[in-house]
Prior knowledge:
The chain is an alpha+beta fold.
Amino acid sequence: MKEENTYEYKVNLKMAIELCKQFYRDDNADGELLMHDIATYLGPIRPNRSDKRNLRTKSFAGFVYRVPS
């Protein structure tokens, strides 16, 4: 890690897995390109984050208004 960075960074695991799956499916895949693509999905590690994320499931949007009357 560079000393001038504010945060340490980690790889987005979901995107890394998806890129690895694509890598193994492709016969002409390049490992260097895979590592470069994974490195583009970095996110900061923020210790002692002050506000929690409010995760809520989205409710179903009904389509009753489309039914002919």
